[in-house]
Amino acid sequence: MKSILFVAGEGLPFVKSGGLADVIGALPKNLVKQGQDVRVVLPLYKSIAEKHRDSFEDLGTFNVSFGYFQSVATVFTKETDGVKYYFIQHAPYFERDGLYGYPDDGERFAFFQVAVLEMLQHLNYFPDIIHEHDWHTGMVPVLCKERYYNDERYARIKHVFTIHNMAFQGIFPSVVLESLFGLSQELFNNGKLRFRDSISFMKGAIVYADKVTTVSETYAKEILTPYFGENMENVLELRREDLSGIVNGIDTEAWDPKTDKYLPFPLLNTQASKAKHKLALQERLGLRKSKDTMLVGIVTRLTWQKGLPLLIDKLTDVLSQDVQLVILGSGDTNYENILKGYEYRYKRRVCFYCGYNEELAHQIYAGCDLFLMPSLFEPCGISQLNAMHYGCVPLVRETGGLKDTVMPYNEFTKEGWGFSFTSYSGDDFLFTFRRAVDFYYDRPEDYQNMVKACREVDVSWDNSASKYIALYESMFQ
Description:
The chain is of the alpha/beta class.
């Protein structure tokens, strides 16, 4: 058994802005079930404080010296599902309306990372492994090996860094090395942390961590290429032997179609049950009620990464088919306005919910027949796993985790459970969509084979958690 500390910028069941939170909420819980000692540390954001602080235990306050600055942090704790969570409190940095996107993000997360390492000393808890996630935590292995190297308690810790999205790398002016971390400018001059004329927190982790992972096997290969590597492909190539991909899963307890608290009634493995959920969703959203009409769903951030330009370019052609469309998401204002226009023009056939609603997301997975994810790139993707688990057939572009988790259906061998296309092309997307519509209406037996196969895919964390345990163990052999 290893002692593992997860360090992340967000995590369920306390706070979420993206798929990272789902991983932090589910993977530690599964690792605990497999016999590991796993703890998680997060910033104490305003939203967490407002909902949960009264239930936290105060473990005390300690000094934090980061670069030119002196401050204090208070650490709180709470155990949930066998996982001990720590929360670093610093109200000026973290008790804000949002999580990220502030001008002082470099300073905020520099403080957080130093505070995490100082917390270990305050609690006299030194794990075997620190598992860092994304750029917000990328300097932790750098600090352990450059600032705390004389302290054996820190020096012996192994580090695993997981890349959830290469597009966000934590790039800041090189002066922060000294001003925020108290580190030598030599780390910029010798290239270890240099990214063009700045430094990259993510590059720090890639260079200094013992192992680097990403969230699917295909994405681990893709980021070694210029198209997906975001100018970090050459650095990743140097760590090729220590780079691996482990696909994400979902929390199958929270996402159990038979007991899901967000569904109006249990979702059973029958066509009648699926139709009942479809009718309920259509009624809720003001769509024409019809159990036989193909209902297409999208739950996404409205960004270029998620394939919105491709989708919008072909949306009129999509709606020329006998389908209904429900879209849940927010993001780029231009995409939001376009989708509002389609909802107005196609009354009772299109519903666009601008924002995010957890209950509605669950009901979309349960009630829809087809789920669209035509992403430009997708490190892993969680939505397609949720959809499959609820018997909603995915249509995806073959990239990253979408390629690893969705096997295209073969009408001759009857193998597979989804539809996919390779090129980021509107014509290829539309051809594949029309094929899905044809299968739904003209080959219902094949379509039901796909629905059945979707439900049988193991989307839990069990297998992936075992792979993480094997990775952890490999660092001590």
